[in-house]
Write a structure and sequence with these properties.
The protein is α/β, with parallel strands linked by helices. The protein is built from 13 helices and five strands. A five-stranded parallel β-sheet has the order 2-3-1-4-5.
């Protein structure tokens, strides 16, 4: 059974797949692709909360049993998957559900990748443009919905995955969860890679590992067709800075709108 399970809960299009595969270079780590373990526990929580069989029994005793079920279910899942010392489970939901996770896995360590939001939206737009042969379901010319880049930015800002992830991050800052997780800026990871990973290891409380950022093998496997035109979990072998092209992709007006609308984010993470 793994000695410790860590968690990653990052913004979309912020380098979460890259980080998992950097972790995977460390022979002591099993790093997941996008994981469904949180969904297993979350679905079970609904049954525990609503089933009359649990309600009819001693509440304190049932709570102890339920938390034990979650803790051992999490450990048991990875006991069946890997014999490596550490696991890092990737799911966007871990951060916002920190309280739930902490109730059965005390003081969890969660790493959160962030990125200049203008680049996040630009990445979504670039993926949209890559597949003109596909109907994304985003555009309706009859209803004049999603017909321009600015309209698509507005749609993404108000829905999944981008808008929801940003909303969750804001709530984490409001309720204090942000003080318990470790943030990594995508731009810093791609510029000062080993330094940033050293900080991650310090946060996790484990021995540092010297990574090879010129040859990051992709070991996480996902069927991107499941995620439609936005399924893009392929990484580059070499970790290096990525040029900011959001002004060219989104236009100046949309780029400035993002910066103005999410001023709290730009102030928090020092994007200018």
């Amino acid at each position: 059974m793994p000695e410790k399970i860590f968690f990653q809960s990052s913004l979309p299009r912020s380098g979460s797949t890259l980080l998992q595969n950097i972790f995977a270079q460390n022979p002591e780590f099993y790093a997941t692709p996008t994981s469904g373990v949180l969904e297993l526990l979350y679905a079970a929580r609904a049954n525990y909360s609503n089933s009359p069989e649990f309600k009819a029994q001693d509440a304190d005793l049932m709570k102890q049993g339920w938390l034990g079920f979650c803790r051992n279910g999490l450990n048991g899942f990875y006991h069946g998957v890997t014999d490596k010392k550490y696991v890092v489970d990737k799911s966007r939901g871990w951060g916002i559900h920190y309280g739930f996770l902490n109730s059965f896995y005390p003081e969890p360590k969660i790493v959160v990748m962030v990125r200049d939001l203008r680049s996040v939206f630009a990445s979504m737009e670039k993926n949209f443009r890559k597949h003109p042969e596909m109907d994304s379901g985003l555009v309706s010319h009859a209803e004049m919905r999603g017909t321009t880049t600015e309209k698509r930015v507005d749609i993404w800002a108000g829905g999944q995955p981008v808008g929801l992830a940003i909303e969750r991050l804001r709530q984490m800052m409001t309720d204090g969860t942000a003080e318990k997780v470790h943030f990594v800026r995508f731009e810093d990871l791609t510029r000062d890679s080993q330094m940033e990973m050293n900080k991650v290891y310090d946060y996790l409380g484990i021995e540092k590992y010297q990574h090879d950022f010129n040859n990051v093998e992709q070991v996480t496997k996902e069927d991107d067709s499941v995620y439609g035109i936005y399924g893009d979990h392929q990484i580059r072998t070499k970790v290096e800075p990525v040029a900011n092209d959001f002004h060219q992709v989104l236009g100046t007006h949309a780029s400035n709108w993002i910066k103005d609308n999410y001023k709290w984010f730009f102030d928090k993470f020092k994007y200018y």
